[in-house]
Design goal:
With 267 residues, the protein is of the alpha/beta class. The chain has 12 helices and 10 strands.
Length: 267
């Protein structure tokens, strides 16, 4: 990893923990004005929380949040692709911006999402390869959000391992993957790849605080470098309290974290 990438990742990862709480808010392009991200003004009310290490968003939202002063001391990740769920092919993400736009916005990294449905592998891998090549010219780290919509366990684990390895082969610096329901399967999925790439786990379907924090705890023990959670953060009524707990868990700080999870697991 070159110096530019290390410097930029240093704005995203905790200095001591080398982990991060990343909050994607790119959902608006796909799903519209969800609760918590109805407008940039609404986002600006909570995104400043110190528990948020980095933000992923599309170019229009990043520029407006910057105008609000809401991105100060945050890692900034520009999302490169997407597709509205009003489309009949929401899994087929399209390029929507450029690497150069990330530089103009002062982004520390770029991200893209690839959903595999068994029909779009060719286009997905071409997109990842192009993103990595373009970002490498400027020392920008690349986060690949990787979702597999084919197969069931244990086939899904074998497929996920192969998909992650392909992304590593193409040069991605970080991956976002789903947590899954069984901790041992996540451990198996990460055992070979975690030394080559930073892995962050998604929040998945909307769930309560305790189950989510327990899932995060399992993921960290399996080798994940943190979380990349959107809806399970920004729709919460107790958002600031939850962010404090989540950040404490991810960074191993004083915000209750592991101690609470251990107590909850024996109740």
């Amino acid at each position: 990893m070159n110096a530019a990438k290390k410097i930029r990742l240093g704005k995203i990862l905790g200095a001591k923990s080398q982990r991060a709480v990343i909050v994607p808010i790119d959902h608006g392009l796909t799903m519209g004005p969800l609760e918590g991200i109805e407008s940039t003004g609404r986002i600006a009310r909570w995104i400043h929380h110190p528990g948020v290490d980095a933000v992923i968003a599309h170019k229009g939202i990043l520029s407006r949040l910057a105008a609000h002063g809401a991105l100060d001391r945050k890692g900034v990740i520009l999302h490169l692709n997407g597709m509205s769920n009003l489309s009949d092919s929401v899994d087929d993400k399209e390029w929507l911006t450029s690497i150069e736009t990330a530089l103009l916005l002062g982004a520390d990294a770029v991200s893209l999402q690839v959903n595999f449905n068994g029909r779009n592998d060719r286009a997905n891998w071409k997109m990842v390869g192009q993103a990595v090549d373009g970002a490498a010219r400027y020392g920008l780290p690349v986060l690949t959000m990787l979702y597999d919509k084919v197969g069931e366990e244990p086939q899904r684990v074998r497929r996920l391992k192969q998909l992650m390895r392909t992304a590593v082969e193409l040069g991605t610096d970080a991956l976002k993957i789903g947590m899954g329901e069984r901790p041992e399967l996540l451990r198996e999925a990460l055992e070979d790849v975690q030394s080559d790439v930073l892995v962050f786990v998604a929040g998945g379907e909307l769930t309560g605080d305790e189950p989510l924090l327990e899932h995060v705890s399992h993921a960290l023990r399996a080798g994940a470098k943190g979380v990349c959670i959107g809806r399970n953060i920004f729709v919460k009524k107790n958002l600031e309290q939850f962010l404090e707990r989540l950040s404490g868990l991810v960074h191993g700080g004083s915000a209750r974290g592991e101690r609470e999870i251990a107590l909850a697991s024996v109740r």
